Amino acid sequence: MLQNIRDNSQGWIAKTIIGVIIALMALTGFDAIFRATSHSQDAAKVNGEEISQNELSQAVDMQRRQLAQQLGKDFDPALLNDQMLRDSALKGLIDRKLLLQGAADSKFGFSEASLDQQILMTPEFQVDGKFNADRFDQVVRQLGFTRLQFRQMLGQEMLIGQVRAGIAGSAFITDAQVDAFARLEKQTRDFATLTLPADVSSVKVTDDEIKAHYDEHAKEFLSPEQVVLDYIELKKSSFFDKVSVKDEELQVAYQKDIANLAEQRRAAHILIEVNDKMNDAQAKAKVEEIQQRLAKGEDFAALAKEFSQDPGSSAKGGDLGYAGKGVYDPAFEDALYALNKDQVSAPVRSQFGWHLIKLLGVEAPSVPTFASLKDKLTNDLKSQLVEQKFVEATKQLEDSAFESSDLAQPAQDLGLKVQTTAPFGREGGEGLTANRAVIQAAFSPEVLEEGSNSSALELDPETVVVVRAKEHRQPEQLPLATVSSAIRAQLAKQHASEAVKAKGEALLAGLRDGKTPLADKQAGQSWKVVEAASRGQEGVDPQVLQSVFRMPKPEGQDKPVYGNLTAADGSFVIVRLNGVNQAAAPTDEEKAQYRRFLASREGQQDFAAYRAQLQNAAKIEKY
Fold it and tell me: Are 25 and 153 contacting, i.e. CB atoms less than 8 angstroms apart?
């Protein structure tokens, strides 16, 4: 089975993209790449390997940032609390640690060349279809990594991905399972429905009934608890016109930007790995043999497809695409930058094995003018200053609000205006009061009962507010006159539904025991007949469809099976199942689709079982 897992896992590396990596980071947390220099306090231990408090804090922060990026303006930080994030992050870190340990125990691995190839071929690191070192650095910085940290993280994700894809790829589905699933999936059913509507107009609800219901359910008829807030709002955008940058600073930034521009070289290579199956001398001899064939005029790309052991590039004739300096192994890079176009290197030894390298093309950097970048550089530098001032102002607001008995002093300190909201309840209001963080703070004991200013609440990355309760409106009993119409409608619907249900159940009993003959119309309503309905039949109420496919198969054509349900509007629906139709045998294409679906589902279950097995066998200590 292990060999099968390894065989199935080989394609995973080529399929990984940065979106998957980010999703995995959000779901599983982070591991040793965030390990701090101080390990005085651990969050957990997994089979003796520590997870530090610093790792946990980093994972919590990253999960929060990931959610903010994914949801954008819809992100509501108040929907999350630190304990919830901590529990989720710690679970992810433990799960990740177990999977990495499992990968190590099962001897999973990959070549550094495959890791390099994955980075080069990731679309998010490319500009105009070519790897761009500046773009790579930009994305990596946005994710909060250095180059080395990102490589380590990506390597770990590739190992976990190998385990996941390997186990899922080992799922085995028999022909009998496919056939059984096809029979159920393609099965159709013939049925009919008879709907007895709830006649609300025929129901008379008396004032005494309304009064009795009002008295019995008095607590349901209260005005909502509401609060009115005073607040002050600090916006990052307000600082933009308050900062300026000098021409000298712009020139420094410009020189830094263009200094990062570098020549891009398009390389192709043939790799013979040094591993437990081929030692250094054997690998070098193989490369020299290929070199001799090149000297005789054979095509480099064809030989790369035949012999190269880099799975990411061999199918492309060894083509690695364009890249700048700092991407490849130092020995590989030195050899590449010593070549002229279309020239092939002598055998080169890197940490991965022996290479023959061909330079396919050179692309000189395009240097933009200072004038073309001035607006962007100005905005970037001002944004940095604004960010700094906004952080400082937020800290000042936090401190001032904590020390003050109202909002007047913090507003004066920061040149802000105290504003007031409209009344709103615990379900929120509009604008500012629709924000979950504001609602939570408004009805917190500190603000509502103790009369304190709230802490600084981040509404979005650009806006911070502090709120204070101005008025607290307690729930009050609503007068009967205000709610009587709603009660009358509710009771009328309830009575009508009860009446039609009694009528429908009597009819249903007669149909089942044969005392009531089946006719095209029953109780003044016509049967609605549906032939050969599938499980996903359009135009049929999903509630009815679900009921139909849960009913047992009729014993004969003249012996339908009956069922019933109450619709959302109170109507009583009688369902008559007339027959079950077995579908034609599935086509080869359908069988292939069913097999893939079942294998994927079983593979996911196998992987979940594998994770559960790791957890059950592990020694996990949480602190």
Answer: yes
How big is the chain by its Cα radius of gyration, in Å?
35
Q: Which amino acid is at 489?
A: A
- Cα separation, 124 vs 134, in Å, equals 11
Q: What is the pTM of this model?
A: 0.50
125, 24 Cβ separation under 8 angstroms: no
Nearest to 527 by CA among 513, 544, 542, 514: 544
Contacts of 528 (CB under 8 A, 6+ apart): 192, 193, 194, 195
Report the topology of domain 262-363.
Answer: Chitinase A; domain 3 (3.10.50)
Task: Identify the residue with better confidence: 141 or 560.
Answer: 560
Confidence of residue 527 (pLDDT cuts 50, 70, 90): very high
CATH of the domain spanning 2-173+599-622: 1.10.4030.10
**111-115 — which CB contacts under 8 Å span 24+ positions?**
111/273, 111/309, 111/310, 111/352, 112/329, 112/351, 112/352, 113/271, 113/273, 113/310, 113/312, 113/352, 113/353, 114/13, 114/158, 114/310, 114/311, 114/312, 115/151, 115/154, 115/155, 115/158
CB 508 within 8 A of CB 193: no
pLDDT tens-digit profile of 13-49? 333 334 434 444 433 333 333 333 334 468 889 999 8
Q: Is 147 within 8 Å of 328 (Cβ atoms)?
A: no
Kindly state the tokens that stand for 508: 């249903």
Average pLDDT over the chain reads 86
Least confident of 256-270, 418-432, 493-507: 256-270
